[in-house]
Amino acid sequence: MVRTVREDPGGGDRTSGTYPAADEADVVLRDGMAMHLRPIRGDDGSGLLALYDRLSLESLHFRFFAVPDKDSGKVAYLTHVDYDRRYAIVAETAGAIVGVARWERLSDRPSHAEVAFTVADDFQGRGLGSLLFQRLAALARAREITVFEAEVLKNNERMLRLFTRTALPSTTRDQGSVLTILLALDPDALPPA
Ligand SMILES: CC(C)(COP(=O)(O)OP(=O)(O)OC[C@H]1O[C@@H](n2cnc3c(N)ncnc32)[C@H](O)[C@@H]1OP(=O)(O)O)[C@@H](O)C(=O)NCCC(=O)NCCS
Fold first, then answer.
1. What's the 97 CA to ligand 1 centre distance in angstroms?
2. pTM metric for this prediction
3. pLDDT tens digits for 127-144?
4. Which residues contact ligand 1 via a Cβ below 6 A?
């Protein structure tokens, strides 16, 4: 199995699928701030880099398990998706990308998708990560994805609490410093824990 939410496998497709404009949505954070959630586009490279540039080392570590190289090939990989096998949504306010959530279907089990979330540090703890999760889950269900899988560092308490708050059936695989969390978007998709 190739996991690519964290790494560009190289040699991959850099063309985008047809932009699903109907998947755009407007949401409001708990503090009343308006946020536009929309599918990522091929021209979002500079906005995505600006988001990673403002992330703290801790957030970069929690997201990538390392401080990533910001080369243009990797950014192109993250911004060019087919909106089915690979999908990402961004949260935008005042012209800046302040959050991104993505899935990548597992090559050997396409009803399962690996997911990852990033929220700018100054927007964390305001409910944006939860809104991105709910939006990504709704779009995934519409494409017959039944399970989200996430690799989370064991000390990433905020991400783990967010998953718990979704109240979705889940199982956890302990892999040392990393936990693999499986969340059932369809209640029958996972065997009982
Ligand atoms: C993990 C991450 C995506 C979570 O996003 P977030 O926007 O901070 O998450 P939320 O704001 O939705 O939830 C965080 C807090 O808001 C609170 N909250 C969320 N929705 C709420 C609501 N409706 N009412 C009251 N409180 C709420 C939660 O209690 C939570 O507090 P806690 O962290 O003390 O438990 C974000 O912190 C991040 O990008 N971290 C760095 C990268 C990372 O770890 N990525 C995960 C790799 S898979």
1. 17
2. 0.92
3. 999 999 999 999 999 999
4. 30, 59, 62-63, 116-119, 124-130, 150, 152, 156, 158-159, 161-162
Burial status of residue 28 (CB atoms within 10 A of its CB: 0-12, 13-18, 19 or more): exposed
81 contacts 134 by C-beta, under 8 angstroms: no
* Beta carbons of 112 and 61 less than 8 angstroms apart: no
Buried (b) or exposed (e) across 66-89, using 16+ Cβ within 10 A?
A: eebeeeeebbebbbbbebebbbbb
Residues 5-30, mean pLDDT to the nearest whole number: 80
Residues in the chain: 193
Kindly give the number of the ligand 1 atom that is closest to the alpha carbon of 118.
39
Domains of the chain, earliest start first = 22-150 (3.40.630.30)
